[in-house]
Write a structure and sequence with these properties.
Layout lengths: L14 H13 L26 H11 L4 H10 L12 H13 L1
């Protein structure tokens, strides 16, 4: 995913949450990524321009059988990622999952 300006990444959420997320990502243990099913595959499949794209479906299928799917999802939540597919869930899916989790 490319951005037209350095501040485009802020648009998806609060600046404070994004800054905390970036800092968390810098100190997080990311060794689980070595076991990820997506390792070495095109990054744009997980960061498509359109949410309903073929790449989005392909990415979710690869995530489905990934041995580190839960760690990936946890990472996205911890760093407040506002883009992409993590642990088989898009941002919209993660928001819905989080609302259901809080309600239940």
């Amino acid at each position: 995913m490319t951005h037209s300006s350095p501040t485009d990444w802020i648009a998806g959420g609060s600046v404070a949450a994004d800054i905390v997320g970036c800092l968390t990502g810098l100190v997080a243990d990311l060794s689980w990524q070595d076991e990820a099913a997506c390792r070495g595959l095109p990054t744009e499949w997980w960061f498509p321009d359109q949410g309903g794209s073929r790449e989005c479906k392909r990415a979710k299928e690869i995530c489905h059988g990934c041995p580190v799917k839960l760690q990936c999802l946890q990472f996205a939540i911890e760093v407040h990622d506002q883009h992409g597919i993590y642990g088989e869930l898009s941002l919209k899916d993660r928001r819905r999952w989080n609302q259901e989790r809080k309600a239940g």
